[in-house]
Structures are given as structure tokens and as C-alpha cells.
Design brief:
CATH superfamily of the largest domain: START domain
Strand content: 35-45%
Radius of gyration: 22 Å
CATH class of the largest domain: Alpha Beta
Largest sheet: 8 strands, antiparallel
Helix content: 25-40%
Number of helices: 6
Oligomer: single chain
Length: 292
């Protein structure tokens, strides 16, 4: 199993998965291109006009995601099948090897922080494809743990730092989570029955703060999406911390955590970056134990 994530320029990323299958390319090709077989393992219903430039249509079960269109960009049976999928590009390659073949999928997309969701999803799909080819039952389980493994493997847990217009800094973490916003908010605030809902002027709940970043009172609270507060340096406000839970890849909420500070607080910035990285990791681990 070889899974990699690379930047391709223009803000896009390429996810590459490689698997050896115990079946010849011709047999795998049919499972890749025939709608009746795709229905068993691909994440959507697929309509195919199997020719170069042919149209494709994707309809998701229960309309859990908007329908999408695509176009076949490359076709070389039984070795290469490439097409667009909305704004993304999928390239399936089959290389003979012994009695079987090597399947390589390259998925090119713009949402880098969605890569762990895409990787865990395609991992499950290709596992289902292998089961279909082998005449086995296709199992559908919770991919949350696999998702978090990809987050770490692809370096998606790290924060970034940029300079602000006033010469200060902005620390930013973006992370796809495996549970919906309401579940994440509950994990951050504690059980609703025991803890009042956060509000402006109230103390910051434990889940939204870390010891490395002394917290002032809440300045904005919009459950279950936004919580912001000023952090303090030497007993005085030094910048802001903002938690936001937005729409993600469909696997859960997308967390965007930002902290601003002055240029003079570079040491605090370095400590905060390490602390938030650890704190968000603990949150992700906690969410794995919660079934949605």
C-alpha cells in the first residue's frame, strides 16, 4: 500500500493510492467502467458515455451531496481511465503484474485539508472493489480512525503562521474532523445538562483554551459554530483566538482555529503553536470515541 499527497501547483493537491489486485487488468477494467459493477463499490451512482470526451454523471445515495457532472479525458482500455468529477480529476491506471495487476488512482483536487477524507474514502472504495472482484461481501464501517491516520501521515495537523498588516502574526490551524459540528461543539463545551451554553462575557470553556494561551472572557459565541475571545499577555489583551466550525467534506465539520498576536510575542506564538497542535489532537482523539 503506497499512499502519498503532493502539491501540484495552482493551490491544488494530488492524492495517489496504489494497490496490487489479484485479478487481470481486463477483469478490473470492467469493474471500473461498467455502471452495474460500479454501483457496488463507487461512492455514487455513475452514468457513463464510454468514449473519449464522453459525458459522465454522478448521483449520490439519498442526495447526501449535490449531483455532479464529468467528462472522460483519457481512455485506453484496459489500462487508463481518466475523467473529471466536478472540479476534481480522477485517473485510474492498471499495470499488469504476474497473474494480477497494480491499480493506481490519482485524485487531483483543490481542498488540501480534505485530503484525509478523500484518502480514507478511496481506501474503503478500493477495498470494496477488491472484495467485489473476489466474490466477497463488501463491508462498510466507520472510517474515522483511518481518517486520523491519514491526517498525521500527510502532515495536515500542523499550523501555519503568516504576518499581519500591522507587523504581528496570525497562527492558523485547519483540520477536517470526523463528527458533525453539533457533536464537536458538545465535546468542547461539555455535557449541555451540566454546562451553560457559552455566551459573550462568560469564561471560556476548558475545551476552547490551552494553558499556553491565557484566556480572557468570551467576545463572541454562536453555538455550534463560533467562539472567540481575547488572549492575555502580562495581564493585558494581546490578540484574539477564534474557533470556527464550518462545512467540510461531508465526513464531519471543518475546524478553523486562528490566533493573532503582536510581533513582540514571538516566543508566545511558538509555544501556542505547539500547544494548539497538541490540543486539537486530543480533541480529534476524543471524537473517535463518540459515535455519531
Amino acid at each position: 500500500m503506497k499512499d502519498t499527497l503532493a502539491q501540484t501547483g495552482g493551490g491544488r493537491s494530488a492524492l495517489r493510492l496504489e494497490r496490487r489486485l489479484a485479478h487481470p487488468p481486463e477483469k478490473v477494467w470492467r469493474a471500473l467502467t461498467e455502471p452495474a459493477q460500479l454501483a457496488h463499490w463507487f461512492p455514487s451512482e455513475v452514468r457513463i458515455e464510454l468514449k473519449p470526451g464522453g459525458r459522465m454523471g454522478f448521483v449520490f445515495p439519498g442526495r447526501e451531496a449535490p449531483d455532479m457532472d464529468g467528462v472522460i479525458t483519457e481512455l485506453d482500455p484496459p489500462h487508463l481511465f481518466a475523467f473529471t468529477w466536478g472540479e476534481d480529476e480522477l485517473r485510474w491506471e492498471l499495470r499488469p503484474e504476474g497473474d494480477g495487476c497494480v491499480l493506481t488512482l490519482t485524485h487531483t483536487f483543490g481542498d488540501r485539508f480534505g485530503a484525509a477524507s478523500f484518502a480514507s474514502g478511496w481506501h474503503a472504495c478500493i477495498t470494496g472493489l477488491a472484495a467485489l472482484l473476489g466474490g466477497e461481501e463488501i463491508a462498510h464501517g466507520d472510517m474515522a480512525e483511518l481518517h486520523e491516520q491519514y491526517v498525521e501521515a500527510f502532515g495536515l495537523a500542523e499550523g501555519t503562521v503568516e504576518t499581519t498588516e500591522d507587523g504581528g502574526w496570525r497562527l492558523r490551524f485547519e483540520r477536517q474532523l470526523v463528527r458533525p459540528a453539533e457533536t464537536v461543539w458538545g465535546a468542547l463545551t461539555g455535557p449541555v445538562a451540566d454546562t451553560p451554553e457559552p455566551a459573550a462575557g462568560a469564561p471560556v470553556p476548558f475545551g476552547f483554551r490551552t494553558d499556553a494561551v491565557p484566556a480572557g472572557p468570551i467576545t463572541e459565541a454562536r453555538p455550534p459554530r463560533v467562539l472567540a475571545y481575547e488572549w492575555e499577555r502580562g495581564g493585558r489583551p494581546a490578540g484574539t483566538v477564534r474557533w470556527e466550525l464550518t462545512e467540510g467534506t461531508g465526513h464531519g465539520a471543518r475546524l478553523i482555529l486562528t490566533q493573532t498576536g503582536p510581533a513582540a510575542a514571538e516566543a508566545e506564538r511558538a509555544e501556542a503553536q505547539k500547544a494548539w497542535r497538541h490540543h486539537i489532537g486530543l480533541l480529534a482523539a476524543k471524537l473517535l470515541k463518540i459515535r455519531s
